[in-house]
Amino acid sequence: MSNSLDPTPMAPSSAPTAPGTTTPAPPGGGQQLSHGLKQRHLSMIALGGVIGAGLFVGSGAGIAAAGPAIILAFVLSGLLVMLIMRMLGEMSAARPASGSFSVHAEKEIGPWAGITAGWMYWVMLCCGVAAEATAAGKIVNGWVPGVSAWVWVALFMVFFCASNLTAVKNFGEFEFWFATVKVAAIVAFLVLGGLGLAGVLGPGAPGTANLTGQGGFLPNGTSGLIVGLLASVFAYGGLETVTIAAAESEDPKRNVANAVRTAVWRIAIFYIGSMALVVTLVSWKDPAVVADGPYVTVLRHLGVPGSGTIMQVVVLIALLSAMNANIYGASRMAYSLVDRGQGPRSLAKVSGGVPRRAVLASCLFGFGAVLAAKFWPDTVFTWLMNTTGVAILVVWLFICVVQLRMRRRLERETPELLTVRMWGYPYLTWTAMAAVAGILALMTTTEGNREQLYAAGVLVALLIAAGLVKQRRDAAAATSTG
User: b vs e for 330-362, b when ≥16 Cβ sit within 10 Å of the residue's Cβ?
Assistant: First the structure.
């Protein structure tokens, strides 16, 4: 029997059921996860999940390194993300699960794979909560200097922890409106940028001067493109949350399919379109692109009043949205893992349709990372942050391997579940896998990225070792009782 979350109610049965399913009462508390998310929630989660501070601010470093070639970097990484999401969409539409790829990895590869992929992703999301809360606190502290940034960090952590402890529809509503603001900001930027290209706004139509001048389209050669490519890959991270959330929607199979289909091309337009506007309208050498962020620089160039304040508000909303989504995603991943016997069983308790203990554990880990940023910024916090940079690539590798195995099994056993199909299977899956491996190899070429690889390698090795030990113990226990 599958470990997936089957949204269809079934009659009670005395037969044993695989851990992770929602039909019987979970071992921790006698309740099931609710199905309070609607299609509009999932669509906006899919759209807004990757539109974060990394795009609005962090992309400036990629532009400074790659120059106009940042467009090519975002195209290449965007194509990779489309393939990853299509694979994940295929698996999640066939068997929706709150643990998403971790559940599928356990079934198709083994428990050690589910443990490694799931807890790696959990650590990444919790550390993301810490980084986002800290950045948000600094922004508000700049507006209200009389209140310490750490007070704001604590308030944000408490607020979003509390909101995630309530019904899942509250998470969905928060994320819907957060994502709406972010999407509206990107659309407005695209419109204003288009007017700037036409010469209606700003000093006049720039033509191709910024694209071909000042060193050409690829001013820093392939080394600059590599840095830009890595920056763009990490900017896309976060889409996976929609497949986790799909398991708590009214119609998981249909909703995840629709969310994946509509999100991919829209995100490509938002990311690639906005990057193309930035490097066409302003010089990639402008120091403000890194110092103030590319979007602020462009809006200021076009003469938009209050552009700095406007983008600060948007960035704050993006950070709070990411906090909200990361707490949700981390808690559901933790719940799925412990419900499958891959973590402390006490965290599997569900009350009010919410895994509240998993929410609290995720928030506590995140707040612990916040404290690490304050007291051990150059040791513990740096190591944690370094692991998160590579975690998404490790997860993507698992998704590729699992999709190859799961697709063969589904075609053989239950082909009717393949309502979403991976394009060009298996060739594009192998292509995506090679691309992820290539990105990991490219990370060895720069010192900062090598440190991330080493830190992540330690965590991956520890998780694999723990997973293999548990897998062998479970196998030995099953043999002895059999």
Answer: bbbbbbbbbbbebbeeebbbbeebbbbbbbebb
The pLDDT of residue 16: 35
pLDDT range class, residue 278, cuts 50, 70, 90: very high
Question: Phi/psi of residue 287, each to 5°?
Answer: -60, -25
Please answer whether residues 35 and 129 qualify as being in contact, where contact means their C-beta atoms are separated by less than 8 angstroms: no
Cα dihedral 244, 247, 249, 250, rounded to 10, equals 160
Q: Counting beta carbons within 10 angstroms of the beta carbon of residue 444, is it exposed (0 to 12), middle (13 to 18) or buried (19 or more)?
A: exposed
Biggest CA pair distance of the chain: 79
Q: Are 350 and 358 in contact (CB under 8 A)?
A: no
More confident residue, 477 or 162: 162
Nearest-angstrom CA–CA distance, 268 and 248: 26
Q: How confident is the model at residue 49 (pLDDT cuts 50, 70, 90)?
A: low
Q: Is 266 exposed, middle or buried (0-12, 13-18, 19+ CB in 10 A)?
A: middle
141 contact partners, CB below 8 Å, separation of at least 6: 147, 148, 149, 152
| 63-98 per-position pLDDT tens digit | 988 999 999 998 998 889 889 989 998 998 888 888
Above 90 in pLDDT, residue 443? no
Q: For residue 361, name the pLDDT band (cuts at 50, 70, 90).
A: very high
Kindly state the tokens that stand for 71.
Answer: 């467009």
Q: State the chain's mean pLDDT as an integer.
A: 83
Q: pTM for this one?
A: 0.85
